[in-house]
Amino acid sequence: MKFIFAYLILSLLSPSEMIMKMTDSLYIPDKKIVLSGIDGENNPVQLEFDKEKKVFLKTEKGEKSEIKLAEMPLFLKLFFFTADKTAPETFSVSVKSIAGALHAAGINTEVSTVSVSEYDGSAVLAIGKEKRFTEAGVLELSKESMRPITLKTGDETYIFSDYHRSQLPLAFPGNIKFFKNGALQGEWIFLRDEYKQK
């Protein structure tokens, strides 16, 4: 009964409202966001985003690259945006920007459905699908937290997990896996110290 009620409520949300709820759930108030972790081969990874300057820096395997907001890869645009709760209108701008990036990547931002994650079997809201078993580019959001679980565009898939184990304030995944044509291409791990393998 509880699931049916949740299904009815969530099915009333438009994809745009889902993206708004996702943005709110991922919001970090800091003007500068810095995350340090490792890749799947234990090499250091650092992501740094300056909201005011709208500059994103990525350091991986000792190489630093500066990425402009418009050129940021889609899977990172989901998490790094300029919305500020002290200026509520900025949320609408960020939602439009994310929706536009999803659309440009081939995800139909006009349709959505309640579905089940192929990754962990949890209930998700699938932006980009009208029916559960349709093959399409999709952004799957956790039904409970509204955070991204899976992003599929073309032959690329990103799996986001371990939010509850991630670095504070828990608005970023502790683990990101990247697949191409079903084969694992890479992994980033941003876990708090107590969850890191010794």
Q: How many beta-strand segments?
A: 11
Our Rg estimate from Cα atoms comes to 16 Å
User: What structural class results from the helix and strand content?
Assistant: alpha+beta
Give the SSE string.
Answer: HHEEEEHHEEEEEEE
The rough form would be described as: globular
Strand content: 25-35%
Oligomer classification: single chain
The biggest beta sheet reads: 11 strands, antiparallel
Structural write-up:
The protein has 198 residues and is an alpha+beta fold. The chain has helices spanning 2-11, 15-26, 74-77, 89-104, and strands at 32-39, 44-50, 55-60, 63-68, 112-116, 123-127, 138-142, 148-153, 156-161, 175-180, 183-189. The protein has an 11-stranded antiparallel sheet, covered by helices on one side. Helix 2 packs across helix 4. The longest helix is centred in the middle third of the chain and has 16 residues, at 89-104. It is globular, with a radius of gyration of 16 Å.
Compose a concise summary of this entry.
By secondary structure, the protein is of the alpha+beta class. It contains 4 helices and 11 strands, in the order H-H-E-E-E-E-H-H-E-E-E-E-E-E-E.
